Structure formats: C-alpha cells, structure tokens
Amino acid sequence: MHTEETAIQELEQTIMKYKRTIYGIALTQLKNRHEADDVFQDVFLLYFLKKPEFDNENAKKAWLIKTTVNKCRKYNYGKWNTHVDKSAELETIDKIGFSSEYDRDVYSAVTQLPPKLSEAVYLRFFLGLSVNETASMLGITGSAVSMRLKKAEKLLKVNLEDDFYDKK
Amino acid sequence: MTKNDLKRIENQLEPDDKLVQNVIEKAVQFSANSEMAKDYLKSHDVSDTITVKHNRGYRYILSASAALALVFGAGAYMRSNNVVKTHTSDASSTEENAAVVTDSTPETSVTENVPVSESITEAVESKVDIPDSTLDTPDNVADESESEIKDDGRSEWKPDRTADSFETENGNGQAAVLAPATDEYRSFEMNDTTYYFACGNKGEIYDPEHMIGNNIPNISYINEFLTNAEVLSMFGDIRPSAQAEVYSLQFADPGYLVAVRFIDVNGDERYYLFADMDHSFDTLEEHLLALNIDIYTFDGTAIIRRDGVRSFVDDDSTLKEMLLSANGEKTDTAYGEALCEIFLDTPIYGGSVGYTVYSDGYIGVVNGFGSESIYNVGTETTAQMVSYINENCHE
Description:
Chain A is mostly helical. Chain A contains eight helices and no strands.
C-alpha cells in the first residue's frame, strides 16, 4: 500500500513537472483537444504502469517526449487519406485563450505546418531542445532536423510576415 | 520572435486540471486492479524509442544516435584524384600552429569504433514496430532533404571510396564520409583521433562560467587542453561524464570550432567536434578561407541540381576552383533566379555546405545546420560558373 501511495505521489509530481511539455506536443501535433487529452492520459499512465528506470531526470524527460511523439504519430497515421475536420482544429485554437492575438497567430501558424515540420519546430524552438536532442527524440539525423527547421521557417515567415525565430 | 515569446506561448498550452485529476484517479484504479492495468497496457502501449525499419546496424546507430550525436548532410561529392586540397593561408597564425596529421588510412565505420552501453543495447532490443509511414526511414530521411529533386533515373550516387585524405600546408588528415544512401555516419580523423561530428553551439556543452566560446585565444594548438567542464546529458541515453576535457582546434576563425573529449561512466571516451551552428562570415572569402583549411574531397561525381533535376559534371576541379575563389560581401537578399546548386562535404559546418548560384550575381550558402548566408559575388562570377556547368554537365 505504501509503495502504491509512493508511486501515485511520484506520478503526480511527474505530471506537474511535465504536463505542459507533453500536452503542448500533443496539442500541436493533433490540433484537437480531445485527442490531445487522450495522448496526455496515455503517456502518463504508460509511465505509471511500465515504470521505466532512468539514470537522471533528462532521460526521464526524453522518455516522456519520445512516447508522446510516437503516440501522436500513431494518431496521425492514416489521417492523410481521411477527411479531417478543420473546424474542430480552429475551435481548439480559439478555445486556448492566448494572452494576445500575436501568440494565437504564431501558434496557429505552427500547427498549420505539416506534422513532420511542426514536430521539429516544437521540440527545437518551443521546448528549447538542441538540434541533437531533437534529432534523437524524432529518430532522425541532425541534418534532417536542420532541413525541416529551415523549411518550416520559410513557411512560417510567409504566414507570419516575420522571421520566426530570432537566433540572437 | 524570441525565446521568451515561444516560452510564453508554450506556457499557455495547459491541460485541464480535470484531465490531470482523471489520470491520477485512473492510476489509483490500476493500482487496485492489476488485470485492468494489464489490459490497458496491452491496448495502449507504444515504443519509447523511435523505430526505423532498416538493417540491424542502422537501428543500432539510430538508437545510439544520442550517444554518437553525428550529423551528416545530403551533399554531393566532388571528384578528386586523391589530391587533397592545399590551402595557402595568408593568416600566419594558422600556418604556425598547425596540426600534424597522419596519412590516409581506410576509414573504420562508426559502428566498429563506438562501444555501446548496455542501456542503449537494451533500448534497441525492446523496440516495437510502428507503421512505416509515421516514421522516418532512411530512404525518407534521404528524401527529406532532396524532396524537390525529380528522379532522373539514375540510381543513388555514392562516393567511390569511403575515405580520403586531405592535406594543408600545416599538416594532413583523414576523413570519412559515406553517402546518405548508405546511412552511415561520418567521422573524421585528426592526429590519430577519430572525431565524431556534433552540431550545436559551444554554449550548450560548456559550464557557463568558463565561457569557452568567447575566450579561445587567437593562436591555439590542436589538442591544446583548455579546461575541464561539467557536461549535462545532452545526448539522451548517454550518461554524462563528470568531466569533459575541452580542447581547442586551430582554425581560420578559431572562436568557433572546438573538440571535446567525453569520458562516460564506463570509462569509454569519445571525441566530438563542435561547431557554431549559426556562424557566418562577413564575406564569402572568409567563409571559403575557413572551409579551405580543412576541406577534403572524395572520389565521386559532382552533382549539380538544376530545375529539380540532377546533372553531373565530368571534371569538377575547375568548377570547384571557381567556387572557392569567389568573393563578395554578405547581404540579406539574393536576387535573380536560382540557377543551380553545388554541394561540398566537409568535416565542419554540419557535414555539408550547399551553394546556390543566382542569376543576378548572388551565392547563397547553406550549411548542414541549416544556417544560411547570402553573398553578392557579381554577375560575372555566377555567369562563369553557370556557363561552365552548361558546357560540361550532362544528365
């Protein structure tokens, strides 16, 4: 019982620490609150049930992110040939309640990117991972990450009429 | 848009408190009912590592990509007659403090060189397959960077050899690179040490107090030990060393390339080259000067991309000389039509550099990190390059 209570407490602490990270990835990739909620739940329950062991906090974070990315990819698999309800996506973004129209526009532009590009953008720029870490999370090479970021930045520049990321 | 803007946006993507509560409640239920927990796990489990369907060797590399942190670009290869590029630098400091490097020897593959920790091996073994279309297979990765290139019917090109040597006035070295089609990572030898290429700013690996990135002296020596630094885990699965030894590397612009020797908890050591991702020069000449010092060539056919189609030039030495002797000031915008792209592989800049030639006298330089600079080299220079390509390329 004590062990179970400890495990539940540990889960709670983990959720409080990483809830925004995991939810942000899921929401950006799936563009739909219901599916993002499902992925959020799945990721933390899998963490609770599988009880993976980590040498350090960074490895734990990496596990959570990779699991979220995989989950989102599974959800998105096959969507290309099915009708996607765009109005549901817009409703999701509307309901987020951003503090400014600027934030809303930026986030909306990112979610409009193809999933492969928005994955890389979110991990690299929103979560602040390095290119190497992003590559590791996505299972691709660093060059592929750089190329995707470059493509994404070009698209975002057109949509936002501004440089997406000030590197300085 | 700044880091703060993006962080602020990310902070607003908050899940409902009710969702969090639901997760905790479900976890409590699973604690009390193991059958329910098992069923859930069975139907919801997904791999925590990204699976790529490929041969075992590549999967090993991919899952250990965190450990190796290697970067390679989808570049073309310029033909060489095993003659290495010799650079005559007018920067006397670079001539004085040269690396003495070994003669060419065949490259050994990364998989042979790199020991694997048990946790990484276990990660490889425990993978679950995920449908291909959701994953980046090696083919897709190669296609990723060349998605705009039409298939011209040629099979994928690759260098004739996997290793070559290079020589400068200050020494010689060995480098190895393989085409993306073979999905093998790139390593680079200097002074009998194999370096793996990693990207990122130096600030990511250094103890901020040391400020190594800003304080490398202008005159420094290959493998001159500078300092120990605490290194956080930046490669995912690899466990960080308590200490990393930081070495300077002599370069045209010595502030931006350093070598780091990692010793992990198993006592295994690896050397990494770090380059400033965003480094760009004020003139194309300075960029090429930096490149020339360590540039090397490979047996292989030069490939030019024009109108989305690959073409080949039989003798690329003249073209390369034209490119490497170009000069111009950095500018913001390239004007004119993008006529062709030429690629070089290098041990720096993320593994490859691409040059886009524009009709109005501009050259856009993109490195393997995706960092881009544009230089105004003049219409005469670009016209010469394009004219040479037109006369000597064939599809």
